[in-house]
Predict the structure.
Amino acid sequence: MPLALIALVAAAAAATPPANPAAPPAAGHQVSPLLVMPQPRTEPPSVTTVQVGGESENIGGQNVDVWPSGALAAGASARVVLTCDVDVHGLAEWCKVAYESPQGRGFGQAALVLRPTFKLTPKQGPNGPVEGLMNIAINYKAPEAENNLSHLQGQTMKVSPSDSSAMGNPAEHELNARNLEVVRNPVAMRRLTMIDTPAWVSAPSFDDMARAYPASGAGVEGYVVAHCGVKPTGVLVGCAAVKETPTRHDFAKAALALTPQFRVSPEALALAPRGAPLEVDVPIRFPPPGEAKDRTVRAPVWLAGADPQSLMRQFPAQLATRKDSPGAIVQCQVAADGALTGCQIELTSPDGIDFDEAAVKVASRMKMNLWSAEAGPVQGGVVHLPVRIGMADADRASADQTSAGRP
């Protein structure tokens, strides 16, 4: 049975302060209309099913359920399919709703909140695990009430007094509402706002993670999701492990010991809806000791305004002459606040030294969130950043996935 059941009553709080609004289109420019694609008529195939609610064994290993407000009390059931970008560790870095039935009841949005708790077997390539899109089905089933109806029916049967093997009814009472007992294990619902992909101003570093790996970890990878309340100051409180794999290796204990090091940006909290308490899921991946020596940040989450999309617009126009240029690769260190420092050219661009110098300047102004999409640290890590013409356009397309749950 789930450890907690949560009613989702408000949209997830913004991960970061929004970027500056785009300038209005120049006169005479036609603005393309928003294209909304209808969902398919039939449910797309999925690789796994996560059970939410009900009494059956949970295939996805969830220990926390998220329901739309009022749906559980109404006994509503639903089916949602999410299309997720699953990385080489089996973590869903971002998801979008591909199918929802019934629509318009909030089940798709509730399913997106479960994203951090997904841990799958990644796709396999010729050289091992590879990143790829995967469909995950979420089956919402309201728990059924139990009653003593069959017992009462047996008691009210007319039987012969000489038949000692039969169930008697000495009082010969009739079946009525006073005799009927309906039993249901109620789950306390709590109104709250979940923060999706918070902006962290404090988080564990690579060194902190290496020290936290449990002695009983047996050299394997561990994954834990800590569910915590969030104070107005950004401090996490009341944390509990709602996902742990594998078990019996003390990964949950190690993860909970790290939660005091996380702190949500007060500026981001100011954007959250008022009224309901704020809570957050913190995914923490413990890499095996051998892998922990690699401090490369492969899935950074950029902060709005200090991301490639924003900064590449400021790339010198005179250098943007070759739209098909492969660009340059810049190597940077990640500072304690997520800023990139010590940036230098790792792979030069065929467009010349001016391009390389501009690429280093742009990279030096970027800043990432202090927890990556791979559920790991960035402080003290290194990032290999490709900088190329058209990068802003590519990132703009990626940003469209943010509203669908991308970190």
